[in-house]
Amino acid sequence: MPKISSDTLWELAAAEVHSRETEGGEEDGGDMVSERTVFLMGSKAGGKTSILLRCLDRDEPSKPTLAMEYTFGRRARGHNTPKDIAHLWELGGGTSLSDLVQIPISPASIKSLSFILILDLSKPNALWETMEKLLQAAQAQLEKVLSKAQQAQRTKPGAKHQMALQSTARVLPKDYPDRELLSPFPVPLLIIGSKYDIFQEFDSDKKKVVSKTLRFVAHYYAASLIFTSIKSESLMSKTKSFFSHLAFGLDRGKTVSSDSTKPLIIPAGSDSFSQIGSPPTTDVDITSLHAKNPKDLWKKVYDRIFPQENTGEQRELKDPAKDPQYSEPQIDAMRAQKDQLAAWRSISQTDAQ
């Protein structure tokens, strides 16, 4: 049997959806099933699965995510109407498996794709590195797929192809705050600060640094930002509204909270650089940082206050078999025995030579 590539599978799925839409025509417009894709990634053990389960109203215990996992959610728009579908991908392992972002990002999914980046507020010394590495990996793959779509448009020009291509390009409204100064993420992005119940006990100055920095990052990428905790029904309710906005196109509400002494709730387009202000540099001389641009300046100031942890452990855990969260005692023992045998054979061969 010939091997079918993942790209081909995505293209077949896209063709099937397009075929159904075409057959339904304008008469079925209100009953047409909507399909969206949401990709969750973020801090290792940052609560991604727990948050996702709560947003889906699933009362089940969360388990460590094995590399990349898929599930889906459904929601009916009304009585006796087809249910909209949200394809949900979750990346495990923090930054160690960032190469896997290419799996859910394809020409077929990108038109209805959005990202949720979950950052563990209780570990500020790993926050910037996690955010930067994951967003860079995702953005590189998104740009790669968009580039392929543009090449396909040039080789197969036509109204339908042009319409499909335009729908992948994210263009901010002309009245979007600081529009000319931003670097919008290629698809809608929601940044969630998790474990707020622990973060709220931090020193007020440290909370202010984290809050202002994440406000800058979110606004720079034209993203929404919310702080949450699975221990707070109120915060999870607001988080679910943001999630449902991406997954099912529902209204995310108009609540805005930018007070660093409270959980941040800032929908995309509700903030501005003038409101955020300058980086909190109480003990840092900005001129000594030699920043290349505003984002680099915020990064260097943040790193002075919260030195980022060494990523050597993350590189070591590139192989999930070495990650303790995936341990299986019997299998691990057999693997260790096999490795010892291989090492012994290698030594024996060396001695024989």
UniProtKB/TrEMBL annotation:
The keyword Cytoplasm applies. InterPro entries: DYNC2LI1, Dynein_light_int_chain, P-loop_NTPase. It is found in: Cytoplasm, Cytoskeleton, Cilium axoneme; Cytoplasm, Cytoskeleton, Cilium basal body; Cytoplasm, Cytoskeleton, Microtubule organizing center, Centrosome. Residues 312-322 have a biased composition (Basic and acidic residues). GO terms for cellular component: axoneme; centrosome; ciliary basal body; cytoplasmic dynein complex; microtubule. One of its GO terms (molecular function) is dynein heavy chain binding. GO terms for biological process: intraciliary retrograde transport; intraciliary transport involved in cilium assembly. Keywords: Cell projection, Cilium, Cilium biogenesis/degradation, Cytoplasm, Cytoskeleton, Developmental protein, Dynein, Microtubule, Motor protein. It comes from the Eukaryota. SUPFAM superfamilies: P-loop containing nucleoside triphosphate hydrolases. Residues 309-328 are annotated as: Disordered. Its main location: cytoplasm. Pfam families: DLIC. Belongs to the dynein light intermediate chain family. This is Cytoplasmic dynein 2 light intermediate chain 1. It comes from Sparus aurata.
